[in-house]
C-alpha cells in the first residue's frame, strides 16, 4: 500500500499554474490602484489574454444601514482576502453588537412604520424585478468580485450562479402578489379567515461558499413576504452582498428594509441571533454553529429559526448504468465549488461489480481536473476559501491516510501560494473512518464498495446528516426504492446539484430545520393570523 501511496502522490492533477501569477501581479505592479477606505481596482486593460477578468472595483466596504453606507460603531475594520494568494484586497467595516443594534433599529422602524409591509404587493414585486434587472446588467462585474473574494471559477460564477441569482429574484417577485390566506369552513356561525402576514424583522446569517446565492435564497422570500432584514455576511466574503444591497436601493427599496452588516460570528452573528427585536432567524453554515444560534434564539426571545447545515451525502452508483457517465457525475457531485458544498456527494458508494472500473476511471478523471487561477478559461477548480479551511482539508487527508484508506491520487497542496489543494481520491474507505463521517468541505472523494441495495440503504443512512443524496441507475424499481428509503432532504436521480429556484432545499436530521427555496420558503417568513367574525350579531351586542 505504501508504494501505491507514494506513486500516487507523484501523479498530479492538471495544474494551470502559469495563470496564478499574472492576476496577482496586476495588483502588485501598481496597475491596480488602492484608494482610501480600502478601495482596490483593476481593469481588463491590465489582464493578460489568458485571464477573463472584467473590470471590477471594490467600492462598498462599509455597513449598509438604513440606506446609508456607514463605518463600524467602533471604527474597526477587518481584512478581506484573495484566496489565490492570501493577499488583502479590502478593509471592511467590522460589525459587533452595537452595529447590529443600529441595523435592527433601522429594520424595526422600517417594518413598524415604513412603507414596505404596507406597500401593495405588486409594487414590492416590481422593485424585486427592477433589482433583478440591475443585477443582470452588472453580472460580469459581480461574478468577478465573487471570484476575487471567494476563489470559485469565474466561468461558474458568471454562467451559473449569477443567472440563478437573477432567477431566484424573478421567482420571488412572482410570489409577492400571490400570497394570501384562506376562508375556513369552521363549525358554528362564524366567518373565519386567515391572514398571511409578514413575520417582522428577519435576521439572516450566511456562509462564504456561495455568498450571492445564499443572499438570494434568504433575501428573496423574506422581502417578497413584506419583511425587513438584517443580514450578516460571512467574514471571508463580505463584498458582493454590499454591492447588490446598493443595487437594491437603486431599484427603489426604501431605506431600512435591507441592512447588511459585515463581521465575525461570535460577535456580530451572535448579537443578531440573540437580539430581542429580531422576529425570525435564518442561518446557513456548520452544524456546530447552527446549534449555537438555535440556543441563542431560544434563550432570547424564542424567535423561530431555520437552519441549513452540514452534510455527508451519499452518491450511490448501481451496477446497471453507464460507468463513464457515473464517474463524471460522481466527480462533479464531489468536486464542484472546490468541494465546498453542504450537499457534496462525499461518500461515493459503488456496486462491487463495477467498483474496479469505476475507481480507475475516477482516479483518471481527478487527475485531469484543471486546477488553477479561477479567472482562467477552462479552470474547473480554484483555491479553498482560506488558510483555516485549507488546513482542515489537509488534516482530513492525513486522517484518511492514517486510517488506512488508499490514497489513489492527490493528497497535497498545489503550488506554493494561495490555498490550492490537489483533487484527491481515496478508495477502500470504510464507514467508520473519519473521512466517511465528517464534512471535509474540500476536493476529497471517498469511494466505498457495496454489495446490494438493502445494505447500501442502511449504510447511506448511517450518518448524523441528511441533506442530500445521489442515485445513479437505469432501473426504475431501484430508483423508486432508493428515493423513498434515503433519509435526505433532496434525492437527485441521475443528476446532481440541480438548484432551480422552485425546488425546496433543506435537511433531515442534523442537516437542519426547515426548507428554503420554492414555495416552502414563504412559510419561513409569514405569520398566520386567524380572524373570526360572527355571521349574525350575537345577542350581547
Ligand atoms: P460557520 O458555521 O461557523 O459560519 C457560517 C456563518 O455563521 C458565518 O457568517 C459566521 O460568521 C457565522 N457564525 C459563526 N459563529 C457564529 C456564532 N457564534 N453566532 C452566530 N453566527 C456565527 O462555518 P465556518 O466556520 O465558516 O466553517 C466551518 C465548517 O462549516 C466548514 O468547514 C464546513 O464544514 C461547514 N460549512 C457549511 C456550510 C454549508 O453550506 N452548510 C457553509 C460554510 C461552512
Ligand atoms: Mg465557524
Automatic annotation (TrEMBL):
Transmembrane segments: none annotated. GO terms for cellular component: mitochondrial matrix. SUPFAM superfamilies: ALDH-like (SSF53720). Keywords: Oxidoreductase. Residues 69-531 form the Aldehyde dehydrogenase domain. Gene3D superfamilies: Aldehyde Dehydrogenase, Chain A, domain 1 (3.40.605.10), Aldehyde Dehydrogenase, Chain A, domain 2 (3.40.309.10). It holds the Pfam family Aldedh. The active site is at 308. Coiled coil: none annotated. GO terms for biological process: carboxylic acid metabolic process. The keyword Cell membrane does not apply. GO terms for molecular function: aldehyde dehydrogenase (NAD+) activity. Belongs to the aldehyde dehydrogenase family. This is Aldehyde dehydrogenase family 2 member B4, mitochondrial isoform X1.
Amino acid at each position: 500500500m505504501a508504494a501505491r501511496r507514494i506513486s500516487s502522490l507523484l501523479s498530479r492533477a492538471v495544474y494551470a499554474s502559469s495563470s496564478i501569477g499574472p492576476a496577482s501581479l496586476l495588483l502588485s505592479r501598481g496597475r491596480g490602484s488602492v484608494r482610501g477606505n480600502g478601495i482596490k481596482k483593476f481593469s481588463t486593460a491590465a489582464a493578460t489574454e489568458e485571464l477573463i477578468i472584467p473590470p471590477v472595483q471594490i467600492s462598498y466596504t462599509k455597513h449598509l444601514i438604513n440606506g446609508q453606507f456607514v463605518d463600524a460603531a467602533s471604527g474597526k475594520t477587518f481584512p478581506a482576502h484573495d484566496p489565490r494568494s492570501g493577499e488583502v484586497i479590502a478593509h471592511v467595516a467590522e460589525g459587533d453588537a452595537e452595529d447590529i443594534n443600529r441595523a435592527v433599529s433601522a429594520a424595526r422602524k422600517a417594518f413598524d412604520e415604513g412603507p414596505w409591509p404596507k406597500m401593495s404587493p405588486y409594487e414590492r414585486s416590481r422593485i424585486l424585478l427592477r433589482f433583478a434587472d440591475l443585477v443582470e446588467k452588472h453580472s460580469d462585474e459581480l461574478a468577478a468580485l465573487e471570484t476575487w473574494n471567494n476563489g470559485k471559477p469565474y466561468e461558474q460564477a458568471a454562467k451559473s450562479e449569477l443567472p440563478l441569482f437573477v432567477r431566484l429574484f424573478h421567482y420571488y417577485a412572482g410570489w409577492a402578489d400571490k400570497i394570501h390566506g384562506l376562508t375556513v369552513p369552521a363549525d358554528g356561525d362564524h366567518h373565519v379567515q386567515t391572514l398571511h402576514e409578514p413575520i417582522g424583522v428577519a435576521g439572516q446569517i450566511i456562509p462564504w461558499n456561495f455568498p450571492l446565492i445564499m443572499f438570494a435564497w434568504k433575501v428573496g422570500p423574506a422581502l417578497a413576504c413584506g419583511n425587513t432584514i438584517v443580514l450578516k455576511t460571512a467574514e471571508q466574503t463580505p463584498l458582493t452582498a454590499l454591492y447588490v444591497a446598493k443595487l437594491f436601493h437603486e431599484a427603489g427599496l426604501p431605506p431600512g428594509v435591507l441592512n447588511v452588516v459585515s463581521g465575525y460570528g461570535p460577535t456580530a452573528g451572535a448579537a443578531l441571533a440573540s437580539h430581542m427585536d429580531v422576529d425570525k432567524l435564518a442561518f446557513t453554515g456548520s452544524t456546530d454553529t447552527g446549534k449555537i444560534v438555535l440556543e441563542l434564539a431560544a434563550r432570547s426571545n424564542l424567535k423561530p429559526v431555520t437552519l441549513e447545515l452540514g452534510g455527508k451525502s451519499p452518491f450511490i452508483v448501481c451496477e446497471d448504468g453507464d460507468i463513464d457517465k457515473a464517474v463524471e457525475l460522481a466527480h462533479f457531485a464531489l468536486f464542484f465549488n472546490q468541494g465546498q458544498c453542504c450537499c457534496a456527494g462525499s461518500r461515493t458508494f459503488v456496486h462491487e461489480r463495477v467498483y474496479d472500473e469505476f475507481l480507475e476511471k475516477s482516479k483518471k478523471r481527478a487527475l485531469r481536473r484543471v486546477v488553477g487561477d479561477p479567472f482562467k478559461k477552462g479552470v474547473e477548480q480554484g483555491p479553498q476559501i482560506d488558510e483555516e479551511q485549507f488546513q482542515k482539508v489537509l488534516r482530513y487527508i492525513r486522517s484518511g491516510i492514517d486510517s488506512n484508506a488508499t490514497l489513489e491520487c492527490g493528497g497535497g497542496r498545489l503550488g506554493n501560494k494561495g490555498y490550492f489543494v490537489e483533487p484527491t481520491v481515496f478508495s477502500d474507505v470504510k464507514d467508520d473512518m473519519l473521512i466517511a463521517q465528517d464534512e471535509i468541505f474540500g476536493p476529497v472523494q471517498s469511494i466505498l464498495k457495496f454489495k446490494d441495495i438493502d445494505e447500501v440503504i442502511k449504510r447511506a443512512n448511517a450518518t448524523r446528516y441528511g441533506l442530500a443524496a445521489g442515485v445513479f441507475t437505469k432501473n426504475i424499481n431501484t430508483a423508486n426504492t432508493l428515493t423513498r428509503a434515503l433519509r435526505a432532504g433532496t434525492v437527485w436521480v441521475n443528476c446532481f446539484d440541480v438548484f432551480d429556484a422552485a425546488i425546496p432545499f433543506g435537511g433531515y436530521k442534523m442537516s437542519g430545520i426547515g426548507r428554503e427555496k420554492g414555495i416552502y420558503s414563504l412559510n419561513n417568513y409569514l405569520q398566520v393570523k386567524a380572524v373570526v367574525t360572527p355571521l349574525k350579531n350575537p345577542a350581547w351586542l
